[in-house]
């Protein structure tokens, strides 16, 4: 027996969109046998995931830059080990 679909409570919001964007949303939703609300929810979730990934990448970059001098110093301290392997 199939499980009943879990319905999450939704809040209604009002959004103002340019007519051409709304037309595109309607067309895509229809092609995907969906509706505008579902399409917009998925698009926003996708966008917010991308924002989160970009923020994480920026945090990582900042962390690497903060530690760059220390990392270079450690690398230089062990450069002799690489030279020994090359012999």
Measured as a percent range, the helix fraction is over 70%
Total helical segments = 3
Low-confidence runs of at least 5 consecutive residues = none
Mean pLDDT: 88
Strand content: under 5%
Succession of helices and strands: HHH
Characterize the largest beta sheet: strand count, sense, and whether it forms a barrel: none
The radius of gyration over CA amounts to 25 Å
Number of domains: 1
The general outline is elongated
Cα-to-Cα separation, first versus last residue? 69 Å
What structural category characterises the helix and strand content? mainly alpha
Topology, number of strands: 0
What do these coordinates show?
Helices cover 72% and strands 0% of the residues. The protein has 3 helices and no strands. The protein has helices at 19-31, 36-77, 79-86. 0% of the residues are buried. The model has no long low-confidence stretch (mean pLDDT 88).
